[in-house]
Amino acid sequence: MDTELVPTAVNRLANTALGLVPGAGFLVYGAGAGAGWERAAAVAAALACGILAVRGFRAGVRCEAERLVVRGFVWTRVIPRAAVTGVTGFPAVRWTTPGGRRRWTPVTALVEASEEKEGTRSRKRAGVARLRRWAARG
Questions:
Q1: Global pTM?
Q2: φ, ψ for residue 45 (rounded to 5)?
Q3: pLDDT by residue (tens digit) across 76-108?
Q4: What are the Cα distances from residue 39, in Å, to 43, 54, 110?
Q5: DSSP string covering 33-84
Q6: What are the angstrom distances between the C-alpha of 42 and each of 51, 56, 68, 74?
Q7: Pairwise CA distance, residues 37 & 107, whole Å
Q8: Is 90 helix (H, G, I), strand (E, B) or coil?
Q9: Cα–chain-centroid distance for residue 13?
Q10: Which residues fall within 8 angstroms of residue 83, CB to CB, at 6 or more apart?
């Protein structure tokens, strides 16, 4: 059975806002821009912000039987379960490539912020604990 580790709904909406707010600003700027290249640049920036908003909402970890899928703001990393060597306190997944190179993949969706409510931090800690248990069973 797969386990999905994601932040609370409030955190997911906040992660989405990291892309939506500047994206809206770029669209407003583009609407008032004079030159065609300024409008094109504003639309391109707004599209990039839209991608960031979607990725922010989807950020998290999926623990599957044979692999770990870490979705961040910029990329998605798929790590074979056998390659996982541990989970740090950051949190990040330590793993080794087939060639023997040691890697470190941050799990940004479960990083705690000092200004978060205790319930949010507690849920993130529980998610990291579940990730550690999954890695230990490897």
A1: 0.89
A2: -65, -40
A3: 999 999 999 999 999 999 999 999 999 999 999
A4: 6, 23, 37
A5: --SHHHHHHHHHHHHHHHHHHHHHHH-EEEE-SSEEEEE-SS-EEEEEGGGE
A6: 14, 21, 36, 20
A7: 37
A8: coil
A9: 13
A10: 95, 96, 97, 98
pLDDT in tens, 116-126: 899 999 999 99
Query: Is the pLDDT score of 138 beyond 80?
Result: no
Helix (H) or strand (E) holding 87: strand 84-87
Candidates 15, 42, 9; CA nearest to 26 is 42
Token digits of residue 95: 């793993």
Distance of CA 33 to the CA centre of its chain: 33
Cα separation of 9 and 6, whole Å? 9
